[in-house]
Design a protein that fits this description.
The protein has 632 residues and is largely without helices or strands. It is built from 20 helices and eight strands.
């Protein structure tokens, strides 16, 4: 019987090449050869005449398929021929062919393995978890790969499989109950309030290891078996049994709370008001140990005075006062500030607060600011705090820089120096002076420009003015319109300048007689043009006229007969001031002496009137004939 042509090449080739489709991979090299084909193939079964027996050898995979866990339980399609293994792992491709085809970039860890990579797991490399160190000894025995670091099998999904249990098994194996995969700390899933010891007050700020630290000789923290029912489980008794010896049966929380050791409350069944020192104000909030320093509550404690417990912040300033140094005289037990000594009580002191002083803050006068302030300052005079605004004008008698004689505490500008008080000075205010504003006479003080104010003194904003004058004459304030440098009050009064009081002209060199008594002053004392500083309407007295011709020269009835360059004859030699016509001329003093007969002759017989060049008729006295033949 002849063989088919199709089988001819097979019969001509070597026997091994006729059966094997190619060399096996390196992991299966020990099965190379036709005598080992049946180790993996079941000939005569399946659609192609044989099936695979992978799971007969790879029992670790079969166990995972049966347990429905791991990657293979999701990727493998169950079949009697086990041919699905070849979908991913292909053999007879040579020793250099990799049996496992894994695309790491597209591998969905949750969908393929059932273990989601979350938190810090997401950034880990595959080899960081899939390595021999992470594979338990029981699982490592069934892994066929010689190098376990190349295997992805054997890992468990619980945290303890990779991470060390920091709690030593005290809190179970479900780490996710308290922790997340983002970080070990903090543990957001843990709530201490659900435990038998909820954290309150300062316990919330205590580090965990403070209470859960390991025992001596151990390195694992403690979470079970802690004594949390009493304070003594963690804290020592600071009272050293003082309360217990005193018969007090309460616990620590009878007086204290977790907000702080010093935040005490009255113990149950203990009332401090029954003692000699009831606790009021801030004393009620103080811890017992502040007073009972030895925790011996039967030991007597001084309490009669504040200084028994408190340091005197005033350094004994009030030790000699009527109330002694007892702080309660000025302070409350509710606090050092505000003090009982207020502005109203300041009225009892040596310096009552009035006016602007009442608005000042205490540190303004009592320096330095704070508890060390000086209260008994001795500053009871204005000059102790305020700079002298008068440049020493009132430093001597009778004022001696006592500002209160003129000023009040309502303000420096408000003075009590009235017009009536001005009467007692060297310059009483009379007449119009009583209506003049003070500043019109008391001008800014020139010496104040260089007045230096000490740093410790208070400089007032008011402009210093001159108040004391060495010269009290009128010319100090008023300009002399007459330029006589005489005392104005000799003629004038302070009521009205133009109302001149009677002037005794008899005491001057020019006595007023006759018609002169009816003449107005200005007619004889006209304004002096030679005095440029004088007002135009002010009468002149410095150059008063004494000769008749100085006033009557323009009306010289004699036409200048008695006036020459040599001399000016005085009219009074002939005329009197009562009446011009009344002549008292003594002819015996003339060049022509009158005898008896001539004495009876009228003057006009010899002294005739002649027409003058200006048209006036002038009686001629000069050049009158003196010889007999000139008249007879």
């Amino acid at each position: 019987m002849a063989l088919p042509l199709a089988l001819a090449p097979w019969l001509c080739a070597p026997a091994a090449a006729q059966i094997s489709p190619g060399s096996l991979s390196r992991p299966h090299q020990q099965l190379e050869g036709v005598t080992h084909c049946a180790s993996c193939h079941d000939f005569g079964a399946g659609a192609r005449g044989f099936s695979l027996k992978c799971l007969d050898c790879h029992t670790e995979i079969r166990r995972r398929l049966e347990a429905h866990t791991g990657f293979h339980s999701r990727a493998y399609k169950q079949a009697a021929t086990q041919a699905d293994c070849a979908r991913c792992h292909m053999e007879h491709n040579g020793q250099g062919f990799t049996l496992t085809r894994l695309d790491r970039a597209r591998f969905d860890h949750l969908a393929e393995t059932g273990f989601a990579l979350a938190g810090k797991h997401r950034a880990r490399a595959c080899e960081a978890c899939h390595n021999a160190k992470r594979i338990p000894a029981a699982a490592r025995a069934e892994i066929k790969v010689k190098d376990p670091n190349r295997s992805f099998l054997g890992l468990a999904q619980d945290c303890a499989a990779c991470h060390e249990d920091q709690h030593g098994g005290q809190l179970g194996s479900d780490c996710n109950h308290c922790h997340t995969e983002d970080a070990w700390k903090p543990a957001p899933g843990f709530d201490h309030s659900r435990t038998s010891f909820p954290l309150t007050g300062l316990h919330q700020a205590v580090a965990c290891q403070k209470c859960h630290g390991p025992k001596a000789g151990e390195d694992k923290p403690r979470y079970k078996g802690l004594v949390a029912g009493t304070c003594q489980g963690c804290h020592e008794d600071p009272h050293r049994g003082g309360f217990r010896d005193a018969g007090f049966s309460g616990t620590c929380d009878s007086c204290h709370n977790t907000s702080g050791w010093k935040n005490t409350r009255s113990a149950k069944g203990f009332n401090h008001s029954t003692t000699k020192f009831p606790l009021t104000g801030k004393h009620a909030d103080r811890p017992c140990a502040d007073c009972h320093k030895s925790n011996d509550f039967r030991r007597p404690i001084g309490y009669e005075q504040c200084v028994d417990c408190h340091q005197d912040p005033h350094a004994g300033q009030f030790a000699g006062r009527v109330a002694g140094s007892d702080c309660a005289a000025c302070h409350f037990d509710t606090g050092f500030k505000p003090a009982r000594f207020d502005r109203a009580m300041h009225e009892w002191s040596a310096f009552p607060l009035e006016g602007k002083h009442a608005a000042l803050g205490c540190p303004k006068c009592h320096q330095p600011e704070g508890r060390s302030a000086v209260y008994r300052t001795g500053k009871l005079d204005c000059s102790a705090c305020h700079a002298d605004q008068h440049a020493g004008e009132f430093a001597t008698a009778p004022y001696f820089d006592r500002c209160e004689q003129c000023h009040t505490q309502a303000g420096f500008e408000l003075v009590v120096f009235s017009v009536e008080r001005h009467e007692a000075t060297r310059f009483p205010l009379t007449g119009r002076h009583a209506l003049v504003p003070c500043n019109d006479c008391h001008q800014p003080l020139a010496a104040a420009a260089n007045l230096a104010v000490p740093a410790e003194k208070i400089a007032l904003p008011a402009v210093p003015r001159q108040h004391r004058f060495t010269d009290l004459t009128c010319n100090t304030c008023h300009q002399d319109p007459h330029q006589t440098r005489l005392a104005c009050e000799e003629c004038h009064t302070t009521q009205q300048w133009r109302e001149v009081k009677p002037f005794e002209h008899e005491e001057t060199e020019f006595r007023l007689e006759g018609a002169h008594q009816r003449v107005k002053c200005v007619d004889c004392h006209p304004p002096e043009a030679s005095v440029p500083a004088a007002p135009a309407s002010a009468p002149g007295f410095s150059e008063a006229r004494k000769q008749c011709g100085e006033c009557h020269g323009a009306k010289d009835a004699h036409g200048g007969q008695f006036t020459s360059e040599a001399r000016v004859e005085d009219c009074a030699a002939c005329h009197g001031a009562v009446r011009w016509e009344t002549v008292t001329f003594d002819h015996d003093r003339a060049l022509f002496t009158l005898d008896v007969a001539h004495r009876r002759v009228e003057c006009a017989k010899c002294h005739k009137q002649e027409s003058w060049p200006d048209g006036r008729m002038i009686r001629v006295y000069r050049g009158t004939p003196t010889k007999c033949v000139q008249c007879h």
